[in-house]
Design a protein that fits this description.
It contains 16 helices and 8 strands. With 420 residues, the protein is of the alpha/beta class. The strands form 2 sheets. It has a 6-stranded mixed β-sheet, sandwiched between helices. Strands 1-2 form a two-stranded antiparallel ribbon. It is elongated and about 95 Å long.
Length: 420
């Protein structure tokens, strides 16, 4: 019995053989793989010119040298040369022209000097915190191409409209948990000052991280500011949030209960732990982390209090500020102990938040400071965008999500599964 050939496998084999043949010919004639006269440059030139010629044929309605074009009222009229910047460097191409000048190419548009892949490279480098000057130097070093700072700025400015669309996109109808965090950004407004940018991160009913938005503040935010932010989130479709985790931001708790009257406001255990380590020498961090863990993993408030007394006996004399920190936050911390262990695990899961903050800090640190608030927001949005091509910054929150979902569904009966 004869074997049936797989057309896809056959095509892949043909492409591989063709590639090997081209490489062999290039090597035989001393042609480099990359560079101005390299194999990839020539292939890109041929592909672009072939596509442009096909567009001209479709535009005119007949092939080159086809007698059917005689007397048609329009015909080919030579070519014009231009250089386009691609991911492999500058490529010189010949763009066909027509007599009536009505040809409007799409693969390389009129006045287009770079392929779309270059824009994505610029946006990716900006998301990593590189300045326009550093990006220009990168293209000169890697691609041997000159890209002006103005061009780079125009490329990044294109995402402003995309950012506005992202900030107004519809959201999930219900989030089991929403975290509100802040990151400080240096912005020059007459003088360089630290300005907070707030990020809201929702955990969806599917167990994914969803970055809801970014909001710039001035450090003096109150209830009015937070009411506007949370109302915006609600107007984008989020009718209910079970738990909002925040860190003592003025006016925020009242705004939360005004917008979502059934939401529970929980002091952020993550921030409490983070602030704990700020008061301690780094060499003791591992030991402190081990000994504070029984406090926030205790089954009841009474058990947590016992563990905290033990912690105080060990560390109180050396780090009294840590003890004072926990004592001051105790009344806002203990509601956490009423939750099921699976819900606690979601609230205390730092990976999704810390990976986002690390990306933000890397981008901000590389820039130092920003000339305007919009420049800072644009950089943070691009960092968010780089986490996920859809721009939503999706990531799995916890590996064991189903047990957590069941715990949420029981604790907040009728609000999770029914509304999701």
């Amino acid at each position: 019995m004869s074997e049936t050939l797989d057309p896809v496998a056959t095509t892949d084999l043909d492409h591989r053989q063709l590639a090997e043949q081209l490489l062999a010919q290039a090597k035989e004639h001393g042609v480099d793989l990359v560079g101005p006269n390299g194999l990839l440059n020539q292939l890109t030139k041929n592909v672009l010119e072939t596509a442009l010629d096909a567009e001209m044929t479709e535009h005119l309605g007949y092939d080159k040298h086809d007698p059917a074009g005689r007397g048609s009222g329009n015909s080919r009229n030579g070519v014009r040369s231009k250089t386009v910047l691609t991911e492999i460097g500058p490529v010189d191409i010949d763009v066909p022209r027509d007599v009536n000048s009505s040809f409007d190419p799409q693969i390389v548009k009129k006045r287009q000097r770079r392929l779309t892949g270059i824009d994505e490279i610029v946006l990716s480098l900006t998301a990593k915190g590189l300045t326009t000057g550093e990006i220009a130097a990168h293209f000169a070093d890697i691609y041997g191409a000159t890209v002006s700072k103005d061009t780079i700025s125009r490329i990044t400015d294109k995402v402003v409209a995309e950012m506005a669309e992202w900030c107004n996109r519809p959201l999930e109808p219900v989030y089991p948990v929403v975290f509100i965090d802040a990151i400080n950004v240096k912005i020059r407004d007459g003088q360089v000052t630290n300005r907070p940018v707030y990020v809201a991160i929702g955990v969806t009913c599917g167990g994914e991280r969803d970055i809801l938005g970014l909001w710039a503040g001035d450090g003096g935010e109150g209830a009015k500011f937070w009411l506007a932010v949370l109302t915006e989130i609600k107007n984008r479709g989020t009718g209910d949030v079970c738990i909002v985790v925040c860190d003592g931001l003025k006016g925020l708790p009242d705004a939360i209960t005004t917008v979502w009257d059934r939401a529970i406001v929980q002091t952020c255990v993550i921030h409490l732990l983070r602030n704990t380590f700020r008061y301690a020498s780094r060499k003791y961090w591992d030991q402190i982390a081990k000994e504070i863990r029984p406090v926030y993993t205790a089954p009841t408030e009474a058990a947590a209090k016992e563990r905290f007394v033990e912690f105080t006996a060990t560390w109180g004399a050396q780090y009294p500020a840590i003890i004072r920190l926990w004592e001051n936050a105790w009344s806002e911390f203990v509601p956490f102990l009423d939750y099921d262990v699976e819900i606690r695990r979601v609230i205390c899961s730092t990976n999704a938040i810390e990976s986002l903050n690390a990306r933000y800090r890397r981008a901000i640190r590389a820039r130092g400071h920003f000339p305007t608030e919009q420049a800072a927001m644009k950089c943070l949005y691009l960092a968010t965008r780089s986490l996920d091509p859809t721009g939503r910054g999706k990531a799995r929150w916890a590996m064991r999500w189903k047990p957590a979902l069941n715990a949420f569904a029981i604790t907040f009966e009728g609000r999770i599964v029914g509304d999701a």
